[in-house]
């Protein structure tokens, strides 16, 4: 494993109780950072904290509630100090269904968490990074946001929005030593897949030229570099993690 130096950094990882977010948090801790995990699942947060060690902090928060996000940020800074790294991994897939039969409340929920929630968290954390002229942000989008998965209109649209938000914010903050990038993973075997049918999961696997799913540690390896000081130039960009699926 390459050594990435995150000594002295403090990271917020949303959705960090499990899956991709947890793997990234684990890699950050191994790299010397302190981590505050944000998640709405209190029980899983406790398990994650035990696994990562006593220095890891946790905050139970629903990122789709902007007031709760602002309070979570205040608590995080008060308890763990200023935040230099932000990874937005909290998200949901929602059910698979054709657009003309897509449940409207699910559409709204997916947009509310994946798009609005990602916006609220960025909005809360960015001012401190601007004040200190330092920050590294990674938003977790999806290959679905580039290519569009059939029967996943809400999810695909939400992840395309995350890519657009990242490009906009990255350009806005390019005059600071702040990098804002996103990654577009293909399928990784995490609990988010429980929201989908086996047929849908097999469709996504069949689209990956590597012929296998992404390992969460592979995503963590890319993100660890993206949030390091060494990533001092690239911003407003999209990093592909699709095993060859995405063609741009
Ligand atoms: N696993 C994949 O195949 C895959 C592929 C591409 C992109 N992604 C994206 O990666 C991110 C992480 O996915 P994962 O596979 O680790 O999923 P996961 O279900 O394992 O973890 C997601 C975490 O987010 C939390 N969460 C959900 N809604 C929340 C909310 N409103 N407020 C706070 N926390 C909330 C959940 O409690 C959970 O712990 C998501 O944004 C997902 O869309 C996943």
From TrEMBL:
PANTHER family: OXIDOREDUCTASE, SHORT-CHAIN DEHYDROGENASES/REDUCTASES FAMILY MEMBER. InterPro entries: NAD(P)-bd_dom_sf, Sc_DH/Rdtase_CS, SDR_fam. GO terms for molecular function: oxidoreductase activity, acting on the CH-OH group of donors, NAD or NADP as acceptor. It comes from Phyllobacterium phragmitis. This is 3-oxoacyl-ACP reductase. It comes from the Bacteria. Belongs to the short-chain dehydrogenases/reductases (SDR) family. Signal peptide: none annotated. It holds the Pfam family adh_short_C2. GO terms for biological process: fatty acid elongation.
């Amino acid at each position: 494993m390459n050594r990435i130096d995150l000594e002295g950094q403090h990271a917020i990882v949303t959705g960090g109780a499990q899956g991709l977010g947890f793997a990234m948090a684990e890699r950050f801790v191994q790299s010397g950072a302190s981590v505050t995990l944000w998640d709405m699942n209190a029980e899983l947060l406790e398990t994650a904290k035990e696994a990562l060690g006593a220095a890891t902090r946790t905050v139970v928060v629903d990122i789709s509630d902007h007031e709760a996000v602002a309070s979570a940020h205040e608590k995080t800074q008060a308890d763990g100090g200023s935040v230099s790294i932000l990874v937005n991994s909290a998200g949901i897939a929602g059910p698979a269904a054709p657009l003309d039969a897509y449940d409207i409340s699910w559409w709204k929920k997916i947009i509310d968490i994946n798009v609005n929630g990602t916006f609220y968290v960025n909005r809360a954390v960015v001012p401190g990074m601007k004040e200190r002229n330092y920050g590294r942000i990674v938003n977790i989008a999806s290959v679905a946001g580039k290519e569009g998965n059939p029967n996943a209109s809400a999810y695909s649209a939400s992840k395309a929005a995350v890519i657009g938000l990242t490009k906009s914010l990255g350009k806005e903050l390019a005059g600071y030593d702040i990098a804002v990038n996103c990654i577009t993973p293909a399928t990784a075997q995490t609990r988010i897949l429980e929201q989908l049918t086996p047929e849908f999961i097999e469709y996504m696997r069949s689209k990956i030229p590597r012929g296998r799913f992404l390992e969460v540690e592979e995503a963590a390896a890319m993100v660890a570099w993206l949030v390091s000081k060494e990533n001092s130039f690239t911003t407003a960009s999209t990093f592909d993690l699709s095993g060859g699926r995405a063609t741009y």
